[in-house]
Write a structure and sequence with these properties.
four-stranded mixed sheet; 17 helices; disordered N terminus
Length: 473
């Protein structure tokens, strides 16, 4: 899942060179002159001085938009009077204080080099900034700064310090589906075995009963479910997390066998996933506002304690704000999809128009030179994916590989020149899948599936299926 998001961001990046910065009216960055009232609301002010907000635009922080929370945020306020605002949008690299992005993208490198030449990127050596506010970093990351000079085509110019390349190294395999539940709520139930989706349903039902004794607005499950893209994102996630299969547009692809099947097979995995989601809905366990819900809304609900389960790490354990809040509860019959991640490094730069160049350098220096830098790195990775060492997600991946069945995502299973009917079929599937999930009875569910089959056939599903089988064989 993260792979296709990264690809989408890269495609956006390809058109970035030469673009103008977002205007203030369009910007999503925090406005210090107004009081935020949503997920961008700032933490409470601490001390006598007004905290300084540093905006970081970070690639892959797609599960977080707003002010950083948790232990690292508290320490930053206490020790440096700084709060961090995370912006994962590519356009944020032009107007944030600190920008951290994939150094391997040629168009991004070209844009940064142009901005360096135009004076739009801060030279950390100017006015002794690095020496005064980042002396430890300058010494410990000497090689990284040298690589930064090479990246900007300024090798040998010791006075050119426009940023550095970080030490991030992605592990070979990553499990994004970790089946996270609220451990504190689960501990108050009978904690029965979890082998199947049916077992998980009973567990979630018991957990919601406990949670609603304190808060009637809690739902066991809430889902990211854009209503204008893809076919059914919740089904896509569950296909990968439970059946080890890929939803490739209008078809189901099995990376273990290389076979393609129809999403409409009555005994197939896609229909089974829709049926499970419908069961959750009819039992009152599924947030009825899931359809059309974006990631930021889901993240906010989870942070507010309104959600008890997430199949995804990024909307479960990654949002932990206290020790032991989440744990994995993986159905033993799952076949979990793992993803091979290419190792890539990010380039760190500071925009020249930042109001706080000293604080930006001081912040970065603190992050990479503190005695517990590795712990800080993990904390920051959990919330923003800025820096990755031995993190919780890598530990969970190892546990999954040792204890559960898994398959590898097939990145080569790409459908490019799709037939003319493809988009119309995907729209039919998107709308029909939602209708099935929100059916009020089992009979109504199967009626919705029958209608979906008829509508898909009329839209040209057979041609799409034939194309996919021919392309992916």
């Amino acid at each position: 899942m993260k792979t296709w998001k990264r690809i989408l961001i890269m495609l956006m990046l390809l058109g970035l060179v030469g673009c103008a910065a977002v205007t203030p009216e369009e910007s999503v960055l925090p406005d210090a002159s107004t009081e935020a009232t949503d997920s961008t609301a700032a933490p409470a002010e601490q001390g006598d001085a007004e905290p300084i907000t540093i905006t970081i635009c970070s690639q892959a922080s797609d599960a977080w938009l707003g002010y950083l929370e948790g232990d690292i945020a508290d320490r930053l306020l206490e020790q440096m009077n700084i709060r961090i605002y995370i912006d994962p949008d590519i356009m944020g690299v032009l107007e944030s204080d600190i920008a951290i992005w994939d150094s391997s993208v040629a168009s991004y490198q070209e844009m940064l080099c142009e901005r360096v030449a135009d004076g739009d990127i801060l030279n950390w050596a100017d006015n002794g900034l690095l020496e005064q506010y980042g002396a430890q970093m300058a010494e410990q990351l000497a090689d990284a700064f040298a690589e930064g000079r090479s990246y900007f085509g300024l090798s040998g110019d010791e006075d050119a310090v426009y940023g550095f390349l970080d030490r991030i190294a992605a592990q070979p395999l990553t499990a994004y589906y970790t089946w996270d539940i609220r451990a504190d709520i689960y501990a108050q139930t009978e904690q029965t075995a979890c082998n199947t989706l049916e077992d998980l349903t009973q567990i979630l039902e018991a957990m919601q009963t406990v949670a609603r004794e304190q808060d009637e607005s809690v739902y066991a499950v809430s889902l990211p479910w854009p209503d204008t893209e893809g076919v059914c994102q919740p089904a896509e996630m569950l296909l990968a997390a439970y059946y080890g299969k890929q939803l490739e547009g209008a078809v189901v692809y099995d990376p273990a066998t290389g076979s393609v099947s129809s999403v409409l097979e009555e005994d197939g995995a896609y229909i089974a996933v829709l049926q499970w989601l419908n069961t959750l809905y009819r039992k009152g366990l599924l947030d009825p506002d899931s359809y059309g819900q974006d990631w930021n809304d889901l993240v906010q609900k989870t942070k507010d304690g309104k959600v008890l389960f997430s199949v995804l790490y990024s909307t479960g354990s990654a949002l932990t704000l206290q020790e032991g809040q989440w744990e994995s509860l993986i159905p033993s019959e799952s076949v979990i999809m793992l993803y091979e991640e290419e190792a890539y490094r990010k380039v760190w730069v500071i925009n020249a128009d930042t109001e706080y160049p000293e604080k930006c350098i001081e912040l970065i220096n603190w992050l990479v030179t503190a005695e517990d830098a590795d712990a800080l790195a993990e904390d920051l990775m959990v919330n923003t994916y800025i820096w990755q060492e031995e993190t919780e997600i890598s530990q969970k991946t190892t546990e999954i590989m040792e204890s559960y069945r898994y398959v590898l995502h097939d990145d080569t299973a790409a459908l490019d020149d799709t037939p003319d009917q493809w988009d119309a079929v995907c729209q039919v599937l998107r709308e029909g899948s939602a209708a099935a999930v929100y059916a009020e009875s089992e009979e109504a569910f199967w009626q919705a599936i029958a209608q979906l089959e008829a509508d898909a056939a009329e839209a040209g599903y057979d041609a799409c299926l034939a194309y996919a089988k021919d392309s992916l064989r």
